[in-house]
Amino acid sequence: MIRSSGLPVPRGSISFSGRQALGAIGALKAHGRETVAQFEQAFATWLGVRHAVAFASGKAALAAWVRVLGLGPGDRLLLPALDAPEVPALIRGLGIGVRVADISPVTYGLDPDRAAEVQDPQVRGVLVPHLYGNPADLDRLSRLASDRGWVLIEDCAQALGARWHGRMVGAQGHPAFFSFGLMKNLNSLQGGMAVTNDDRQAAALRGFAQALPDPSPLAVLRDLGLSLTLWTGTRRLPFAAAWPVLRVVEALDPSLVHRAARLRPSRWEQASLDPVPLMRRMSPIQAGAGIQGLPRVLPEAHRRRAHAETLIRALSSLPGLDLPGALAPADPVWTHLVVRVQDRYRWRRRLLRRGIDTTTGYLKTLHREDPEAGPCPVAEDLEARSLYLPIWPELDARDIDRIIDAMREGTKR
């Protein structure tokens, strides 16, 4: 690791290792699907659940849950008003309608009070993402789902390792799924996992998965090459080499990087995503990478959480900043630390001058996709004012101090 040396700080880094690459390549020599079964068992034990069923992506795992839970045409699923556009697109592609409710200004997860305002007899379930690795209010949302007769599905795509009342999210007794995409805390080359403690649900999920084909080996190897390329590109020295170009781009158009990041997901706004090409079971190559990456998750989460907590403490007294918070039962992993500022592009330029990258993510407000939804001011505010601060595990204390100093300087102008 390069200690703080004045080099630019990328906003994030790829969680991938040489051992994971070797695990993926080694799985090519294995016979059958033993590597996938080993990963499923290892993940279930690590998480603290009875069953884990592997898929080729988090989207495939979500689609499997929708089918296993018996949701179909005429049913609707309640979503938070800020999420990746692919999520409602996939749900629509599965023939399910979408309803939307606003998010909490504290956790950025689905607000139980706003969810309770949705009075719709066609709603049969609620999808609860733990956005940015910060658990949503599972206690209140679980009670609401129970009172309404809804099924609650935990979306743990960004929250691997987070806890609620001391137990891992995804191990709370609800249907749940994880994503192991290239930018996630565990990168298994686009893998996903559905988890449950219910034997019948597990049998149905396994039957569903066993009927699916493997992803193309060439596609998985392409993701392996992309992971290694992105890992290299977000190291300090290579990123420093590209830094002058980023500065020029930002000077010409400070929103260009953000708009480029949203090109692919923006295709799914107001559209449907055909689930058939996505429906693949996990390949042995993906499982090999996952097995080797699993021991890294908690140590990296601990460092990321320490960075986030240091920043939150230091920035809490600064004017003009709105910071996220965690509920009392929650132990977040802070996959991303997102604060809200006025004129984020001006803030981005200020921090770029100090060598700090704050490239904005591509999450999108969804309430315009629900004609029956009212205003969702919290989601709109977060989308418009979000500033992503670097907290990736390889940063050291001097990097975090540098971010704090830059933020303090920015509030004085």
Which SSEs are present, and which pair or pack?
Layout: H1 18-27, H2 34-47, E1 51-55, H3 58-68, E2 76-80, E3 82-83, H4 86-93, E4 97-101, H5 112-116, E5 123-129, H6 138-148, E6 151-155, E7 163-164, E8 167-168, E9 176-180, E10 191-196, H7 199-210, H8 217-233, H9 236-252, H10 256-261, H11 263-266, H12 284-293, H13 297-315, E11 330-331, E12 337-340, H14 344-353, E13 364-365, H15 377-385, E14 386-389, H16 397-411
Parallel strand pairs: 2-4, 2-5, 5-6, 6-9
Antiparallel strand pairs: 1-10, 3-13, 7-8, 7-11, 9-10, 12-14
Please, could you describe this protein's structure?
Helix content is 43%, strand content 14%. The chain is globular, with a radius of gyration of 21 Å. α13 (297-315) packs parallel to α16 (397-411). The protein is α/β, with parallel strands linked by helices and 413 residues long. The chain starts with 17 loop residues before the first helix and ends with a helix. The protein has helices spanning 18-27, 34-47, 58-68, 86-93, 112-116, 138-148, 199-210, 217-233, 236-252, 256-261, 263-266, 284-293, 297-315, 344-353, 377-385, 397-411; strands at 51-55, 76-80, 82-83, 97-101, 123-129, 151-155, 163-164, 167-168, 176-180, 191-196, 330-331, 337-340, 364-365, 386-389. The chain contains 16 helices and 14 strands. The chain folds into two domains: 18-216, Aspartate Aminotransferase, domain 2 (3-Layer(aba) Sandwich); 226-261 and 295-411, Aspartate Aminotransferase, domain 1 (Alpha-Beta Complex), CATH 3.90.1150.10. The protein has a seven-stranded mixed beta sheet with strand order 1-10-9-6-5-2-4, with helices on both faces. The longest helix is centred in the C-terminal third of the chain and has 19 residues, at 297-315.
